[in-house]
Write a structure and sequence with these properties.
Layout lengths: L4 H41 L3 H23 L9 E4 H18 L2 E6 L7 E5 L1 H23 L5 E10 L2 E8 L6 H6 L15 H11 L3 E7 L3 E9 L2 E2 L2
Parallel strand pairs: 2-4
Antiparallel strand pairs: 1-3, 3-8, 4-5, 5-7, 6-7
Helix pairs in contact: 1-2, 3-4, 4-6
The structure holds adenosine-5'-diphosphate (ADP).
Adenosine-5'-diphosphate binds next to helix 4 and helix 6.
């Protein structure tokens, strides 16, 4: 799936605007968060711990949105480090496990097909962000469909084919219709209430900057699979 020049212009402009305002929004958010933490014991004493939880959650959500905007304005050259594919994926699973548990969803990591020592040379923060985006989208798709009946499944797998690593993220969530499939990599395209529509456009750009590819297969009612390929720069012996 190719991104048009128009979409890239949109992303570049978005980057400029967001970099200048994100900082100004983040500072007050940080101080609000700090003061709420200070008030927390008093509010809990009043039996309002649920309010505290919601306030903190919403502040964190606002911060996440700013982070995504900032991410889209990052310079394109990745800062590469060598990392074993398995440990990169394991870290993402660790980060998402509690959310998955809460949604009654099982995350399975199948990295057995990729050697323990198989490493890729990537910007670890950026690639983790991509996988995280995909897993979070999968969780959202499962949340909407299975409604806590405990049948949600996400499978993350990795394999090595020649000089490239393939990573797939599959879910048995609600899947996507043709309209969504046609637009999902466009900046600001979202079907979610409160969604930013930035996760996949940013992910697309990151993967492309790494010389890789990202593709998707989906069926309404059955689920979705995202496929990433990344060039393998080095295999440690
Ligand atoms: P956001 O998550 O903020 O909506 P994204 O760019 O990450 O932004 O995703 C864009 C849209 O693509 C989502 O709103 C959703 O409709 C669709 N989508 C992405 N991943 C999945 C998935 N695993 N299953 C179903 N739909 C998905």
């Amino acid at each position: 799936i190719e991104q048009t020049a128009y979409q890239n212009d949109k992303l570049a402009m978005l980057g400029k605007i967001s970099a200048s305002i994100a900082h100004e929004i983040r500072n007050p958010l940080t101080s609000i968060r700090g003061f709420i933490q200070l008030l927390r014991p008093h509010l809990i004493h009043l039996g309002k711990d649920e309010y505290v939880r919601i306030i903190l959650m919403e502040i964190d959500r606002a911060n996440d949105i700013i982070y995504e905007f900032l991410n889209s304005s990052k310079p394109s050259a990745p800062q590469t480090t060598l990392i074993p594919v398995r440990s990169l994926l394991k870290e993402v699973v660790l980060l998402t496990e509690s959310e998955a548990l809460m949604k009654g969803c099982q995350i399975e990591l199948r990295a057995g097909e990729v050697e323990e020592a198989c490493s890729i040379s990537v910007d670890v923060k950026q690639i983790k962000q991509v996988i995280l985006n995909l897993v979070k989208n999968a969780l959202d798709a499962i949340d909407g469909k299975h409604d806590h009946d405990g049948q949600g499944r996400i499978e993350i797998s990795a394999s090595r084919i020649g000089e490239q690593v393939n990573i797939t993220i599959s879910d048995n969530g609600g899947g996507m219709d043709q309209h969504t499939l046609n637009h999902l990599f466009n900046p600001f395209f979202t079907t979610k209430e409160g969604g930013t529509g930035l996760g996949l456009s940013v992910s697309y750009r990151i993967i492309r900057n790494h010389g890789g590819t990202i593709g998707v297969e989906s069926q309404v009612g059955a689920g979705t699979t995202f496929m990433i390929t990344l060039p393998l720069i080095h295999v440690a012996k």
